[in-house]
Amino acid sequence: MLDQIKGLHHVTSMADDARTNNHFFTHVLGLRRVKKTVNFDAPDVYHLYYGDEIGTPGTVMTYFPFPEMPRGRAGTGEVGTTVFSVPQGALDFWRDRLAALGVSGLREEEAFGEKRLNFAGPDGDGFALVEVRDDPRMPWTDGGIAEDHAIRGFHSVSMRLRDEGATAELLKFMGYEELDRKDGVTRLIVPGGNGASLVDIETMPNVNRAAQGAGSVHHVAFAVDDREKQLVVRKALMDTGYHVTPVIDRDYFWAIYFRTPGGVLFEVATNEPGFDRDEDVAHLGEALKLPQQHKHLRPILESHLQKLED
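Structure for Glyoxalase family protein, as requested:
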């Protein structure tokens, strides 16, 4: 069993409008845009990152906004819900705020002894806020949300699978332990994690596979400290029979990818070097940053990419 993985690193999803996406995460949820760059494989499409002040691993939601992309169809083989941590007693504030701002899909419930507020993103994305007592992570408060209400980072992701078995075994190999089972959901935790330490598996044997589109999670990334630990994880996964990509330089972290038995795309990403490698912390996410191979496209991209703010 591996012990290098410390929880979630980031979650990457798809959207159909960059401006709407940026407004939702920065103005509605109050997160900080920590990087404005482009998709490595499709440079005419943004890659936007939202999180805490510095984009700490375990706080970062990222998006590929493909203009006019059709909506995805929910189903199995995907991350169905991305869940954020908020302070104890904050859900009343969030229910009122999201309702006033016209956010859809609001539904309160309790799961695993935690109060939870479900809601939908602009593209029908599945989100929830969960009250967590004494989450020590410091929130970004310059987005207009006070500290006693603001999002701390990820709480968990919930994967919808037709059969949990092989994926649950994979997560246990990656260092997770089963914490609880309730109402068809298995909860796993990585001990000593980074706060974004939980993964839920919803078993749905009679549900069709998802079709990806706007509002779908493209992949979920797990955090390791550095490249050395990442290589240990890569070798262990390959020795177990997984087809893992070579290490890819994503400018702000190094990444490896592999497809899980349940169909979800996993990434293992390093905590280094971070989002301040090419911008001062005070100005993160302000300028368009381009990967080296796309820098020659700057004049074209700056005229083509949608303006995120007025």
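The first strand starts at residue 8 and ends at 15.
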